[in-house]
Each structure stands twice: as C-alpha cells, then as structure tokens.
Amino acid sequence: MNYKKYLLPALFAILLTGCMADLAAQQTEPSPAELMQKINDLEHRFDELAKGIDDILWYQRVGDVAYIDKIYITGPPPARVKNPTAMGAGNPLKFYCYVFIPRWINPGDKYPLIVLPHGGVHADFTTYHTHIIRELMAQGYIVVAPEYRGSTGYGKSFWMKIDYGGLEIEDAKAARDHMVENYEMVDASRVGIIGWSHGGLIALMNVFNYPDAFNVCFAGVPVSDLIARMGYYDDEYRALYSANYHLGQTAQENVEEYRRRSPAWNAHKLKTPLLIHTNTNDDDVNVLEVEHLIKSLKAEGKKFEYEIFQDVEGGHSFDRIDTRTAKEIRLKIYRFLGKHLNPPRKLNSVSDIHKAAYRKQSN
Predict the structure, then answer these.
(1) Which of 43, 78, 157, 166 has the least CB density, counted as fewest CB within 10 Å?
(2) Domain boundaries, the chain
(3) Name one GO molecular function term (predicted).
C-alpha cells in the first residue's frame, strides 16, 4: 500500500487545522508575515512525518535482504552560530545515518563499505534508492547513507544548518570513519564513495580532501561548478545559497567562496580512482558543469574515467531509474567499483540485477 498517498494528506490537514487554531487563539488577526511563518513551520513538521513513513517503507522494501539501522553520530560544530558564547554552542553537530548490511554475509569476515550521500538541496535519503540498495546488498557491500546537515525531515533547525559544499563534506567523512571504527566487518582498505547530483559533489570533494580515506569514487551527474550554476538558475534557487542562515552572500558578492565549494575548481587534488557520468539532456545539472570538471581534470593531467551519455531517457535520473538502459549503465558503475573494492559477489548482467530486485538473497 502507498501510505504516503493516503496518510500524508490527512496528517497535513490535521496539522493545518492545529495551526489555524493556534492563530485563532491569539484573538488577533494574524499578519500575512505571521501566517506565512506558521505555514513554513508547518511544512517542516510535515516533512518529519513524511520521513517517518518513508523509514517504515525501507523495512518493507529491502528488509528481506538487509539489516537496516539508523544511527546517530556527530560531525563538526555548525558553521554559523547566532551566539557563539552560549552554552554548548561549540558542540559537534548530531545527525542520522542509514546503515544497510547484507543479511547473507558472515559477521566474522571483512566486507567493502560504500558511503552514499543523497542528492538535492535540502533533500534526504529515501526509498527512491530502493533498487540501488538491493543491488549493492546483492554484491556484498555494506552501505552507510549520511543524512548530513541541511537534510529535510529533521526539523527546521537542522534544515537551516545547511552548508552546501562545506561542512556537509565532513559529515560524509564522519560517517565513513564511524563505520570503519565501529563495525568490525568493515574492511578499512576497501572503502568507496558514490553519489549523484549534489551527492556527486559531496563524493568528489571527499576524495579531493581525503584521498587516503577512499579507494574509489563514482560521481553521477555531479554538481561541479556553483558559479556557473548560479548563472543558469533563477533567483529562487540562488536564494537557497545566499540566505542569511546559509552562505549569506551571492556568487557575485563572494565568488571565491563559491569556487572553493566547486569540484571543477578543486580538480588538482585528485588522487583516487574516479568514474564520472553525465547526460547531455540533464534537466537539473547542465552538462556544461560536468564538462568543466572533465576539462579541469584533464588540464591537471589526472587519470580518471568518464562517459558523456547522449540524450538518454530520464534526463538527470537516467542511470537511477528502472529502464533497461539505466540498468546496463549501472552495471558499468558496479564493474568500476568492483575493480577497486573486490566485493564477494558481482552483478554481471541485467538478469543479475533483476534477481537482486525480486529474489531474496541466500548464503
């Protein structure tokens, strides 16, 4: 059953009723600004409900092949604190991570780890990734998916901790370190990081900044040049970055800061085996961004692999959807990862992907 389809509208109606009751209790006519603030706050509560429902769906969709956990760890203190002298102002930021462990593995053996940061500005790790997780479980990867600062579904305060291309990079690295240090079955010598879109940026910046922590990286349709991105997006999108709780300045006002957070301007740091995919009809990350990254890596004399796909159906999601073409492209990704991480099992065909999707995996 699609719980979101039926429950979320009903829950939203309940919350909206409560919101209007609160305003009515004030016995004064609310101003438009007050009403808008109430609605914005309500959206965050709604996102928390949606997150809770999606967490339940994880167990339904991959619980037959994976042990699923949601751990609570820490990253660096927030980038911006209103009162730096307040009690606890310098404390590490707490955030959640999903952990997926194949049910068929032997806890006494060692297995490769995949760090999988989600994409999107103010997005979260959802069951959108169901088939990818099942495919990784079938190969014997342990997966950690950090809900880094700014992710949706954890309240307004956490949402406003966003630090795009900044400390979110450290959150993903903290997730990697936590798994290596606390899970004996994780092989510290076989750790990869993969991501699409914004997650691709996080993957790239991690291997640029911490080349010794990762053995391989895949970046799919990665956000690669924030300066160019601010040029072809609209004011509403730009405002997500220049907001006073975020960077606080536009790219025009502080071009160096936007460049510091852009993979294309950090290409000289690459030391890790890297595969990049992009699509010419991408409707989110314009191919020109990824082309800039590719040209920068070539100019620095870096060895890496890439493929620019021509108008593949699905646009931005071309290799994450469930078409045959997408599955064939994912096989290329898995082969590349497998060369460097040596998982105990391999997916060699689309038929293998179908088995991962629809059959319970055995020892």
Answers:
(1) 157
(2) 1-62, 68-225+262-358
(3) serine-type endopeptidase activity
Per-residue CA distances from 245 to 167, 238, 324, 329 (Å): 14, 13, 42, 39
72, 27 Cβ separation under 8 angstroms: no
Q: What is the pTM of this model?
A: 0.90
Residue 144: closest CA among 130, 154, 133? 133
Please, are residues 150 and 178 in contact by the beta-carbon 8 Å criterion?
Answer: no
Of residues 195, 210, 207, the one with CA closest to residue 115? 195
Q: What pLDDT shows up at residue 3?
A: 47
- Interatomic CA distance for residues 177 and 212, integer angstroms: 12
Q: Give yes or no for residue 190 having a pLDDT over 80.
A: yes
At 17, the amino acid letter reads T
- DSSP conformational letter for 88: T
Phi/psi for 286 (5° steps) reads: -55, 135
Q: How far apart are alpha carbons 106 and 363 in whole angstroms?
A: 9
pLDDT tens digits along 115-159: 999 999 999 999 999 999 999 999 999 999 999 999 999 999 999
Class of the CATH-defined domain 68-225+262-358:
alpha beta
**For residue range 295-317, what is the model confidence (pLDDT) as tens digits?**
999 999 999 999 999 999 999 99
Q: Is 152 helix (H, G, I), strand (E, B) or coil?
A: coil
Rounded CA-CA distance 5/358 in Å is: 24
Q: Kindly give, in sequence order, each residue whose CB lies less than 8 Å from that of residue 217, ignoring residues fewer than 6 positions away.
A: 192, 193, 194, 203, 204, 206, 207, 272, 273, 274, 275
User: Using CA atoms, how far apart are residues 340 and 338, in angstroms rounded to an integer?
Assistant: 5
The token pair at 44 is 């965050």
Maximal C-alpha separation, the chain: 68
Q: Is the pLDDT of residue 162 over 90?
A: yes
Per-residue CA distances from 116 to 120, 122, 193, 264 (Å): 13, 16, 6, 21
For 251, the 3-state DSSP assignment is coil
Beta bridge partners of 309: 279
